[in-house]
Amino acid sequence: MDKILIRGGNRLQGKVKVSGAKNAVLPIIAASILASEGECRIHEAPPLDDVITISQVLHALGVNIRYKDETIYITASQLEKSEAPYELVRKMRASFLVMGPLLARTGYARIALPGGCAIGTRPIDQHLKGFEAMGAEIEIGQGYIEARTNGRKLQGAKIYLDVASVGATENIMMAAALADGVTTIENAAKEPEIVDLANFMNAMGAKVRGAGTGIIRIEGVDKLVGVRHTVIPDRVEAGTYMIAAAITKSDVYIEGAIADHLTPVISKLQEMGVAIEEDENGIRVRPGGNLKAVDIKTLPYPGFPTDMQAQMMALLLISDGTSIITETVFENRFMHVDEFKSMNAQIKVDGRSAVIKGNAALKGAKVCATDLRAGAALILAALAADGETEVTGLHHLDRGYVDIAGKLRRLGADVERVVAGALVEEEQEQGLTFFSTHVSPSMA
Ligand SMILES: CC(=O)N[C@H]1[C@@H](OP(=O)(O)OP(=O)(O)OC[C@H]2O[C@@H](n3ccc(=O)[nH]c3=O)[C@H](O)[C@@H]2O)O[C@H](CO)[C@@H](O)[C@@H]1O
Ligand SMILES: C=C(OP(=O)(O)O)C(=O)O
User: Which reaction does it catalyse (predicted)?
Assistant: First the structure.
């Protein structure tokens, strides 16, 4: 079983480069299905397990897909199948994002039900409501969702989302791209990853207006073609390294971080007393004085991101005073609390709120990543803890962080990844990324 070992107490120093955004590249790869001509080249595609999984989904559909040097090459002119199998959708819910583009291209899609996951039940009713409003017939049974247009094109429609869902906004945008007429999504999600998807689609020939606002208008076109696109930097990864710097009272430059995408995180860190400088190429975090407790409520963008909640909790543990975090996006996103408690933290959860006692004397322990961001948060807490922490459950981390152990080690942290009893630093120091050990035959 792989594990990451962290011995806390080191100061960090230097520069860390942010990888391409997981939550942008996944819908962009799905949207490349819309191109009936030409090749899509997606640059700054992070070498992550989730990227492999969605690539395997496209491969299963008959799409030609290759990965080399952080670029993905996709030719979707020949679609052979319209089914995303359970084994792949089970691994990653975002596989469901192929439903919109498949419906638009072929008028039929059969996707395994994504089901719930550790952080919540995560229904897909808003995606389906959108497809139905556009004229698709939906049938659910035997663990699969089937959607069909019965030989007709999808029709433009006005769709109001009951929740500003990121995935539903993206899936409907992609379905609407080749529809007859105009689709309007009201109460659309406004995340930067949605803007990146819209930019990619518009370069392909789509007519998407208003991405990044609450109302998105998509005028259907007859055809989309392959284009080149560079994925935006990962704001959650950037925020995680900002907290790594703050929790170790270090001076770290986070190269590629876009401050505009991180406004709520920067504001909260500044409120706590973290010194932050922004420039056009990145963000510098410098040691400030004692950190103050703050209250945080997670919300859809531009509110405080739920994907930064666990990491922020790690920082609040070593701050002066008591903080309250309210998680409003997912109903069960506090599993990291019990793991933090193993590290000597005092946290009380009451429904959707967690009360965090500051000035914790964190101690190294054996802990398990219960989900992706929980894993990152445990590593952050371990950087400030006394003694050694062992983090397992790394399959979660590998979904969303490119070589987190290597990036932190190069900043001066005492971190190593142990694979099946063997240390892998040597391989990573030689520039062989973790991706190469996980690459699937279809992508090699
Ligand atoms: C691959 C990707 O981009 N993942 C991100 C995306 O997930 P994802 O797109 O799955 O998240 P959503 O924005 O859809 O979910 C937000 C809330 O809406 C609810 N909901 C969603 C869809 C639906 O049809 N019905 C419904 O009730 C969900 O249960 C959740 O409570 O946005 C989340 C919220 O910022 C992030 O945490 C994830 O990292
Ligand atoms: C919850 C997350 O991702 P996903 O939606 O892919 O599960 C995340 O990135 O923190």
Answer: phosphoenolpyruvate + UDP-N-acetyl-alpha-D-glucosamine = UDP-N-acetyl-3-O-(1-carboxyvinyl)-alpha-D-glucosamine + phosphate
